[in-house]
Specification:
Elements: E1 10-16, H1 22-33, E2 38-41, E3 49-56, H2 63-66, E4 71-79, E5 81-83, E6 92-95, H3 103-112, E7 115-119, E8 128-129, E9 132-133, H4 134-139, E10 149-165, E11 171-181, H5 187-198, E12 202-212, E13 215-216, H6 223-228, E14 233-234, H7 235-242, E15 245-247, H8 250-257, E16 262-263, E17 273-276, E18 282-289, E19 292-298
Parallel strand pairs: 3-12, 15-17
Antiparallel strand pairs: 1-3, 1-14, 2-3, 4-11, 4-12, 5-6, 7-10, 8-9, 10-11, 12-13, 16-19, 17-18, 18-19
Length: 301
């Protein structure tokens, strides 16, 4: 039996637990909100925890734009072992003694992975190759390559470095790190590539996303909390928090609602701008193009 929705259309900021897929969280929210019109911005692997932005009803149309925003992760990288999945979920494919790895070498390796970089996603990622998910190709035993993609790592910081011994007896090094990056960056791939650069292999053992755009883990709710009370951030508040705001007058609002293009506000913004009418209603997302405000998503009319 479905529950009746308890809030307006908008965003739900979920603190995803370990062991559930992002699609599993969406299914749960569909039941809680009493609607099938639910989606998420930016997949988290089952192993990962933290901020998962869920859109309900009209707010699902914001998700594609929110996916383009910066993200922050807390993670643990294990040096000394490669795995088939580039994280602890997969079998170890190679191991090397990492006891000789120094902090200086780690910092030098991280420097190479900071800034604008070319990255090859993990083969068990959800990226599509010729219309088919990469992880499906892996499961079917296909031999294929994923082309490198441009991404930006704004910062890659080590907070702790611990020496340990893995279950197979390999001397390993665990790094506690924070990564701030653009959308489309694979933290597992950073762990893999750092290990490769150091010559010992590497994979991810823990991952927690702490921020997606303006939405932080401090404002997120667990599934248990959402079962008690479904907290939905109204779409107008969600848009105002995530995008630059442009308040227009009544006449402009009427033109926009009728599909007319407005003169650009001259904000010099690279990306969507949230448009509001004099009553504070969220009307549309627009982009400044050739002196005009080009609608990219309209939420009225």
């Amino acid at each position: 039996m479905k529950r009746k929705g308890t809030g307006p259309d908008g965003l739900v900021i979920v603190d995803k637990p370990e062991g559930i897929t992002s699609h599993g969280v969406v299914a749960k929210l569909r039941w809680l909100a009493g609607t099938r019109k639910v989606g998420h911005a930016g997949t988290l692997d089952p192993m990962a925890t933290g901020v998962l932005v869920i859109g309900v009803e009209r707010a699902t149309r914001l998700l594609g734009h929110l996916m383009l925003t910066a993200k922050t992760y807390e993670a643990t990288v294990r040096l000394g072992q490669d795995t088939v999945t580039d994280d602890r979920e997969g079998d170890v494919t190679s191991a090397a003694d990492a006891s000789g790895v120094t902090r200086e070498a780690v910092d030098a390796g991280i420097a190479k992975l900071t800034g604008e970089i070319m990255q090859v996603p993990s083969k068990v990622s959800a990226i599509k190759i010729d219309g088919k998910r990469s992880y499906h190709r892996v499961r079917e035993g296909e031999d294929f390559e994923i082309p490198a993609r441009a991404t930006t790592v704004h910062s890659f910081t080590v907070h702790g470095m611990r020496r340990a011994v893995a279950e197979d007896g390999t001397a390993v090094v665990d790094l506690d790190v924070t990564v701030e990056c653009s959308s489309g960056t694979y933290i597992r791939a950073l762990a893999r590539d750092l290990g490769a650069d150091l010559g010992v292999g590497g994979h991810l053992t823990a991952l927690r996303r702490t921020k997606v755009g303006p939405y932080g883990v401090e404002s997120a709710r667990t599934l248990e909390q959402l079962e008690e009370k479904l907290e939905v951030l109204p779409i107008a508040e969600a848009a105002a928090a995530a995008f630059p705001r442009w308040d227009i007058d009544e006449e402009q609002a009427k033109l926009l609602s009728n599909g007319m293009k407005l003169a650009a506000p001259g904000m010099g913004v690279d990306g969507p701008i949230a448009v509001f009418d004099p009553e504070g209603r969220f009307l549309a997302l627009v982009e400044e193009t050739g002196g005009r405000a080009k609608p990219v998503a309209v939420f009225v009319g």
